[in-house]
Amino acid sequence: MPSKILDEHSAAHVAELFRAFSDTSRVQIMSVLLGGEKNVSVLADLVGISQSAVSHHMRGLRQMKLVVARREGKEVYYSLVDPHIITLFQQGIRHVQEE
Predict the structure, then answer these.
(1) DSSP state string for 6-66
(2) Per-residue pLDDT tens digits for 19-55
(3) Domain range holding 20?
(4) Residue 65 belongs to a domain with what CATH number?
(5) Coil/strand/helix, residue 3
(6) How many domains does the chain have?
(7) Does residue 4 belong to any structural domain of this protein?
(8) Per-residue model confidence as pLDDT tens digits over 3-13
(9) Does residue 3 sit within a domain?
(10) CA-CA distance, 57 to 12, in Å (whole number)?
């Protein structure tokens, strides 16, 4: 079966998706979110970066539709909900842990 080249628009979206996994802090944040939704202060404490840095990363992840946000009063809680992203992320973790 011959391979079909991916159109430029789709290729750009795939590249953007994988760019999300190119930052250690974002990967650590996403690994924490595998365990369920968390707010910025909890994420900052667990990952060991400032709340403003977490907020910056979350803004980008939200724009890429990799996380969703839920507001409760003044707090914003983030979670991973797309099963494709969760599976892709877990497969990436399994891949590097098998080496």
Answers:
(1) PPHHHHHHHHHHHHHTT-HHHHHHHHHHTT--EEHHHHHHHHTS-HHHHHHHHHHHHHTTS
(2) 999 999 999 999 999 999 999 999 999 999 999 999 9
(3) 11-98
(4) 1.10.10.10
(5) coil
(6) 1
(7) no
(8) 789 999 999 99
(9) no
(10) 20
